[in-house]
Design the sequence.
C-alpha cells in the first residue's frame, strides 16, 4: 500500500522535498517523471532528470526501502541497469547496477496529513471512498473524468471484439453476428446465445434468411429446443425442417440445459428473445452495415423495431399456450443492444481501422440515448452526480466497478483532486 502511495507522489510531484537532493548531496531537477509501467521492469520509463550538472534520460524505480532493490534481485537484472534514480522513503542500504556502479538515491518525504487522507480513501467502508469529499471537487473536473472513463470503457470492450475477430479469422460480419446474438441474452443468457452463434455460422443462416420458418427452425433447433416432435403443427414443421438442415450442414446443437428461465420475466425468456432475434435477422439479411453505417440513430431504432411470429404471439415457451401478445422488442431492450453491442462495435471498427468518423459516431450516439436506470446510478444521484445520457451512465457504472469498488483512488482523477486539495491546504 505504501509503495503505491510513493509511486503516486513521484508521478504527480506531490512530495515536499525542497530543494531535491540525492543522498550524496547533488541537486535534482525533475524535468519529466517518466511514464508509469504496469508490466515487468522499472516503475517509470523515459524519465528526464538533471542530477548535479548532468542531464539523464532513463528509468526510475520506486521502493519503500532501498533494500527492496536487493530483495527483488534487481542487482542481477540488466533490465534495471538504465535506472537513473532510485526513489525511496527509507534509505537503509546502498544499491548498485549489475556492474557495481552506484545509483543515485532520492529519499522522498511528504506531509503526514496527505498520507492520512490517502488511508481514509483506501480504508473507507463506504461504497464511494471520497463520498464526504466529493462536493469539494469541481463539477467540470468530474465531467472531464467521466468523458475519459467512457473512452476507457469502450477501449476495454475492444479486447472482447478482438477475441472474437481472432476466432473468426478477422471476419467483421461474423464478429458482429456473434456480438448481436450475445446481446440478446441480456446478461443472464449471454453465454448460451454466443455459443448458439458459434454453432450456426452466418453464411449458413443467410442461405435461408428469406424464409421465417427455416430461420426459426435453425435457431430453435441449434438452441436445443426442438429435441423431439411436438403435438403442435408449427413446432412439428420446425422439427422436420431442422432435421433436414442439421443433416445437410452437419450442425450440432448446443445443450438445452444451458438456457436460464428461472426468475426471468416471461417477456425475457430466451425463447422469446430467439423469436425476436429471428425477426431482426430476417429484416437485416446479413447486411449489418444497415446498423453501423446509418448516420441517424433514430433510423437504427426503427430498424430494430421487431416483433415475433404468429406462433410466439400465443406462446412464451414451446407447447404452453398463453394469451396473445405482440411481444415487440422494447425501447429499453433496443437501447441496451445499441449501448452494449452496436456502439462498442462502431468504436472498435473505427479505432482498429483508423477511421475517426466511426469513433465519433459511437460517442455521439451514446450522448443521444437516455441514461440507464439502476440502483448503482441512484447511489450516484444521492451524491448529486447525475447521468444526463447513456454515455454518462456507462461511465459511472464503469467507474464504480473498476475504480471505486477496487479502491483505485490514486488512479482516479476525482481521488487525485481530493488529495491535491489536501496537499495544498
Sequence:
Amino acid at each position: 500500500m505504501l509503495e503505491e502511495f510513493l509511486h503516486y507522489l513521484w508521478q504527480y510531484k506531490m512530495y515536499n522535498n525542497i530543494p531535491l537532493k540525492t543522498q550524496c548531496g547533488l541537486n535534482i531537477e525533475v524535468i519529466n517523471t517518466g511514464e508509469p509501467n504496469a508490466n515487468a521492469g522499472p516503475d517509470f520509463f523515459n524519465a528526464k532528470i538533471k542530477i548535479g550538472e548532468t542531464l539523464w534520460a532513463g528509468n526510475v524505480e520506486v521502493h519503500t526501502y532501498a533494500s527492496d532493490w536487493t530483495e527483488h534481485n534487481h542487482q542481477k537484472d540488466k533490465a534495471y541497469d538504465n535506472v537513473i534514480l532510485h526513489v525511496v522513503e527509507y534509505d537503509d542500504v546502498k544499491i548498485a547496477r549489475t556492474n557495481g556502479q552506484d545509483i543515485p538515491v532520492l529519499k522522498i518525504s511528504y506531509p503526514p496529513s496527505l498520507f492520512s487522507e490517502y488511508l481514509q480513501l483506501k480504508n473507507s467502508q463506504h461504497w464511494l471512498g471520497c463520498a464526504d469529499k466529493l462536493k469539494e471537487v469541481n463539477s467540470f473536473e468530474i465531467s472531464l473524468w467521466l468523458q475519459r472513463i467512457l473512452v476507457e470503457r469502450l477501449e476495454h470492450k475492444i479486447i472482447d471484439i478482438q477475441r472474437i475477430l481472432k476466432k473468426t479469422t478477422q471476419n467483421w460480419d461474423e464478429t458482429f453476428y456473434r456480438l448481436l446474438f450475445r446481446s440478446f441474452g441480456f446478461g443472464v443468457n449471454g453465454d448460451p446465445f454466443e455459443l448458439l452463434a458459434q454453432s450456426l455460422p452466418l453464411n449458413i443462416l443467410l442461405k435461408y434468411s428469406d424464409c421465417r420458418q427455416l430461420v426459426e427452425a435453425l435457431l430453435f433447433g441449434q438452441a436445443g429446443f426442438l429435441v423431439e416432435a411436438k403435438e403442435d403443427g408449427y413446432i412439428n414443421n420446425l422439427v422436420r425442417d431442422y432435421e433436414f438442415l442439421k443433416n445437410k450442414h452437419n450442425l450440432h446443437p448446443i445443450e438445452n440445459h444451458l438456457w436460464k428461465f428461472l426468475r426471468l420475466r416471461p417477456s425475457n425468456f430466451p425463447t422469446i428473445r430467439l423469436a425476436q432475434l429471428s425477426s431482426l435477422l430476417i429484416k437485416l439479411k446479413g447486411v449489418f452495415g444497415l446498423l453501423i453505417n446509418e448516420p441517424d440513430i433514430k433510423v437504427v431504432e426503427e430498424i430494430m423495431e421487431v416483433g415475433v411470429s404468429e406462433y410466439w404471439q400465443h406462446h412464451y415457451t414451446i407447447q404452453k399456450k398463453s394469451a396473445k401478445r405482440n411481444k415487440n422488442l422494447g425501447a429499453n431492450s433496443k437501447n441496451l443492444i445499441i449501448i452494449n453491442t452496436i456502439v462498442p462495435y462502431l468504436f472498435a471498427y473505427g479505432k482498429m481501422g483508423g477511421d475517426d468518423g466511426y469513433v465519433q459516431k459511437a460517442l455521439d450516439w451514446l450522448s443521444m440515448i437516455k441514461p440507464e436506470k439502476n440502483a448503482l446510478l441512484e447511489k450516484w444521484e444521492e451524491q448529486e452526480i447525475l447521468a444526463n445520457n447513456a454515455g454518462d451512465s456507462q461511465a459511472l457504472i464503469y467507474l464504480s466497478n473498476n475504480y471505486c469498488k477496487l479502491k483505485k483512488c490514486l488512479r482516479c482523477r476525482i481521488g487525485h483532486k481530493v488529495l491535491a486539495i489536501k496537499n495544498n491546504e
Observations:
- The chain has a mean pLDDT of 94.
- Residues 139-167 form the longest helix (29 residues).
- The chain is about 50% helix and 10% strand.
- Residues 183 and 340 are 7 Å apart (CA to CA).
